[in-house]
């Protein structure tokens, strides 16, 4: 961590350059008490007084400044660059690295165009340059490719990595809006810039793809060498034809190593199957999929943009540098269990009964659930089962497993019930129980 | 890396304990030339002579041995444990850590039941214990939770993490097989053990969930404290009812921190929406989804089992330890581009034309594509468009972008073509262009 490393147990002192959407979210995490290893000590921005208005959650000890020299003072250990753009961000990052301060950046243009040079400088000064947040916001995909799949040789990376295009194309798909209207809506909702050229024409995704190719395929390539095609020419009628073909349209970034060792890379709209992972990406979600010669296909999805997810990536990079500076390679994880665990899930339930058919069965089931305070949502009975062994299903509104089991105990005693009922929780998409929306 | 670290540029010397499916795949990667930082020096197994038969790709310098003392000789830096089970694996791992050798293991039972203790021992001896391969095979999910999302506070983890259950349940769904037949098929195909109890009744997934909870939620819990329900009682008719509800059935492992700080954890069959990520998991695929208070939902999917993907996880862990021992925290990634890049994708194509309707249009399109050596797969024309501005679509068999563009240049000159055609690649599920299968 350079010459400024604090003593072993002390937090690393952090300067934040840029107090826009991502910068504010980074500051929120650093000031939340969740990461005591890091202490925010400086916040730099132009017209800082304006930025400071209404921010009452930053400790008084933090220095707010418009002076880059003050922001990069000797006492600072780590620097966060979330200003964006090449200039003056590049010069500030150089100055920080040159003085032995490690830098974490979310700046895709800086990494795509100056990354190799800045990385060389960091190595020469014995510090680190990290940039997880520069691609796919909150998804820790660069680390996964670089470390988690380090033993594989990846030969293909494909992704939906531009939120504006994902938003515009999924709105065109869902609402039949023409391109211009979907774009205007995205601009009004804050999902597209006033000048959307970089996003819709592909240069934003090309910059990210150049980073994915360097890290994942170990094949650095210039963003400018990547063939791009705009999504502007996609029309409403193309979604109609795509649907006929079982497909939808998304902007896909793709790079692969061909069998002869040459590299293929392109960004542009493509037809993808509606039922595929790519086909189901909407809003600001990103999805990246890689293929390795040993491990096959691995995919990563999550929030591709937004202040808070991007800030998680930035602060996680800071924590890695902090740990490495303390030579603490084994982050605390395993410990003796000290937690009491409940297995009593509250969720909608599916319950299948097997009955000898007779009048009054539904009434007795309803009464038993009512006694346990459970509401039935629906009763289903599929045709073509014998009356002596008739399966039927009730779905229940959200209730605890334990309550279901109490009711089922009552029901099992009824004489029409010829085998114990089967109860399963229902994990609905969009429910708080996560994971059902991949 | 303990007292045995080699000098800075030298490879780490690796002993492999266990030469079964995963062990062989690990040895394959170590002997492939892809990872020169690691040198395989010892292979330990019972009845080693039998294991060595037909293995001609291991260098003569490797010592094959039945003696654990010889396998853990002083010259060895790193130890891989892929023997499985608690005993004698635990004692061998203890011996290795005790002598300052870092250990990488794929052993979920060992980590779930003895992990805290072994981790303490590793720290006390200044070495490392890593176990990425113990959960979800080739998916680098533990590293992503521990490092990549380190700055978030994760409150929920859900997953399909048992390949036997995923195979059996997806076969029941697809083919209407009863449980016993689907299980027998899985056993015949090598996807289920002769005694499938641990898999189908949930204790395998519970062990993995206890590791995910410790690493991701920072809440260690005993596998034995996790409520499990078997998938044995799920019948064919349940898939019929589930389909009526837009769902299918999968074994889901779930742990979450409730608002009052208490922990919920359970493993068992559940209804999941057919269109969700969980609903589309088949075969030996695993899918893990987490939710954090800052970053929202992030998902990871890939091969959950199999020798080669699991071996990628093992060897990636070895590489991390090797790098840390060399204090090389910034793995080489960014470098000046030295690669020529092609953007000429070979794929099936979608081409939309806009025409003034008249006879002979299809003939002229067909002739132009034929001149460029391109086969038309289908012609589509949706109704209700005006004859003066008629969109129609051709789909083309796999061909190069450049050939399509050549043909479209010819076609643009024809007088019925009132605007330039739009050409998009079609990324089909299952095609070699990855990522369309998420």
Low-confidence stretches of chain A: 1-7, 430-438
In round numbers, the mean pLDDT of chain A is 91
> If interface size is counted as residues with C-beta under 8 Å from the partner's C-beta, which chains form the largest one?
A-B, 142 and 142 residues
Kindly name the structural category of chain A. alpha/beta
Which CATH C-level class of the largest domain in chain A is it?
Alpha Beta
Largest sheet of chain A: 6 strands, parallel
Radius of gyration of chain A: 27 Å
Q: Give the CA-based shape of chain A.
A: globular
CATH structural architecture of the largest domain in chain A: 2-Layer Sandwich
Strand order of the largest sheet of chain A: 3-2-1-4-5-6
- Helix fraction of chain A by DSSP (H/I, runs of at least 4): 25-40%
Number of domain modules of chain A: 3
Task: Give the CATH topology of the largest domain in chain A.
Answer: Dihydrodipicolinate Reductase, domain 2
Summarize this, please?
The first copy, chain A, is an alpha/beta fold. In chain A, 33% of the residues lie in helices and 25% in strands.
Describe the structure.
2 copies of one chain form a homodimer. By secondary structure, chain A is of the alpha/beta class. The first copy, chain A, folds into 3 domains: 2-134, Rossmann fold (3-Layer(aba) Sandwich); 141-303, Dihydrodipicolinate Reductase, domain 2; 346-425, Alpha-Beta Plaits. Helix content of chain A is 33%, strand content 25%. In chain A, the strands form 3 sheets. In chain A, strands 3-2-1-4-5-6 form a 6-stranded parallel beta sheet, sandwiched between helices. Chain A has a 6-stranded mixed beta sheet with strand order 8-10-9-7-11-12. In chain A, helix 4 packs parallel to helix 5 (108-124), helix 5 runs parallel beside helix 10 and helix 13 packs across helix 14 (401-412). Chain A is globular and about 85 Å long. The model of chain A is unreliable at 1-7 and 430-438 (pLDDT under 50). At the A-B interface, helix 5, helix 6, strand 7, helix 11 and strand 9 of A face helix 5, helix 6, strand 7, helix 11 and strand 9 of B.
